[in-house]
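Hi there,

I know you've been waiting on this one. I reran it after we fixed the sequence typo, so this is the corrected version. Both the input and the resulting structure follow.
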Amino acid sequence: MSTHHPDRSEGFTPTGTISTSANRRRVVLATVVGTTVEWYDFFLYSTAAGLVFGQLFFAPAGPGFAQILSFLTVGLSFLFRPLGAFLAGHLGDRYGRRIVLMLTLILMGASTTLIGVLPTYEVIGVAAPALLILLRVLQGISAGGEWGGAVLMAVEHAPRAKRSLFGASPQLGVPLGLLLASGMLALMALIAPGDAFLEWGWRVPFLLSFVLILVGHYVRKKLEESPVFLELSERKEKTRAPIVQLFRKHALLVIVAALVFAGNNAVGYMTTGGYIQRYATNPDGPVGLATADVLGAVTLSAVSWLLFTWLGGWIGDKIGRRNTYLVGWAAQLVGVILLFPLVNTGSVGLLTLGLVVLTVGLGLTYGPQAALYAELFPASIRFSGVSISYAIGAIMGGAFAPTIAQALVDATGGTAAVTWYLSGMTVVGFLATLLLRDRSGIPLGPDNEAEQSVSPIRGLARA
């Protein structure tokens, strides 16, 4: 560790004043609320894609292919997440984390609200799926830019000994967003069951996004900029072309970090991507449960995912990010193996149990991710590094996981192949984690760029 400069990001502003606990609480609140709204919007689409979009926007393709097309639109947005990450990475490393958080929140909310008023194929023909895809692409760009800014605001404001726990705060937005999205759709399935849900009930949660965006904007506009970025600005050390520098010096690290997330993301998108919801409610399938029951089970599993994500962040500060991940991968593999045997019983209780068990590993491999990623990259290109690694990992992992699962079931007539696929992705995440050194507690400020630039990949001296 460098000894000639203090790391002023560790609880200090560039002026040398201590970052107060009140300011840190505001950061935690702002990142939790903002990411919850973002992921509510994103997962709302994914769940609706499993339940209604196939019938409403892709019906002419036929029942089976219409559903595959619907899931493909979920994955399509992931292809644009790197674009959002590139744009946000450049803006975040050049102009600050805060401005990116405001822009992504507004873009996501506007796209989601417009989906709520979009006419169906029956009304405007092929323009309906075309507009739906366009709005989903805008959601993908927003999601690609949101995550990096949120996690860096949380981690760079955190005390060194609590980075993983603070970094878990924006991670909580994922299960909270899923909980809110599933809960709202479950409520509307009860208020407007059957044809009413298909006609108008599904639209209400999308329109609610307009209200949530106002709440998120109000909370985030009071947020102070990251102390690391303020220090870079004060010293005029911002990188002119951060993305070029990232790939010139750290391309392999980006791929390894992306593979770590891919192992978690592929499994998580069984619910956040809407696949389990569709599989378990399909009246022509082997399970055939009521929509409200399945959405209720997903909502309960989101609560357990929330708890284990927080626990993963807390444990990450106790035993290190890497060790927490390794425990999480083992737990995730158990959850993957048990998932479909429990779902296929047709019991709502056992379906819920399977989803809850799955969230143990998902939480333990998601809670410490913000701290792990932030500690991998040098300060001057950190926003680009974490955002692009996350976006690429999402493409490798969750982008087409529902589509792949649907295709495997259609081809084999069962779910065993899906279990093998998800198990393989879990092993990929485990192996990628083994390649990384644990850098828990490494100084994050620009005074320590030389130390941060030493490659965390085992066997490499420098990136």
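Quick highlight: Residues 21-453 form a domain with the Growth Hormone; Chain: A; fold (CATH 1.20.1250.20).

Best,
R. S.
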